[in-house]
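May I ask for a sample protein chain and its fold as tokens?
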Amino acid sequence: MGFMLGRRRVLASLNAAIAGLALLAMSSLYAPALAHSDAQRPRGVVLAPLFQLTTHEGRRLTRADIRGKPFVVVFGFTDCPSICPTALLDMTNLLADLGPDGDRIKVLFVSVDPERDTPDQLRKYLASFDPRIVGLTGQTVDIAAVAHAFDATYEKVFDKGGGYTVDHTTKVFLMDRYGLLAAAVEPGTSNRRRSGLIRRLLLQ
């Protein structure tokens, strides 16, 4: 009887250990999701369309450019009168505030006016901002695919003289290093708030 009781205790201990190991394995498997457990659960974004775009340096964006690091996506265009330069200035200041940690995050400026925003035009425009900001342009269909992936919108608005501007989503999209959308930040959000969100992403 004593032998059987001891055997049952050993088996119970083994089962508990196995269950514990299984729980540990599951927690490591879902670490990206658990990292956001105290906030709104992030959603995945189809990133493939980004890699059809061309940078302001004339090369194709690659997965290696953003793999394993948080990044920011800003939609806009170089002829934008105020919203876009303000957003890029905010990102320039934020990168400066981050110091060396600013090298660990990518800022992608996706043009919603690819007809006018050639790589050369983007290069000239971005010379006024932090050099780590990457301008992206491409075919109209490719820009549309990227915007759709982020649930962003844009639309040409023509004036009486035949010129046009582009109305577009002004949110700044913060992506974590797993390719999940961590936050969509509204214009007017304080730099302190933005900095806090990005520092959090860098810690994950």
About this structure: The first helix runs from residue 2 to 29. Residues 66 and 106 are 7 Å apart (CA to CA). Confidence is low (pLDDT under 50) at residues 1-39.
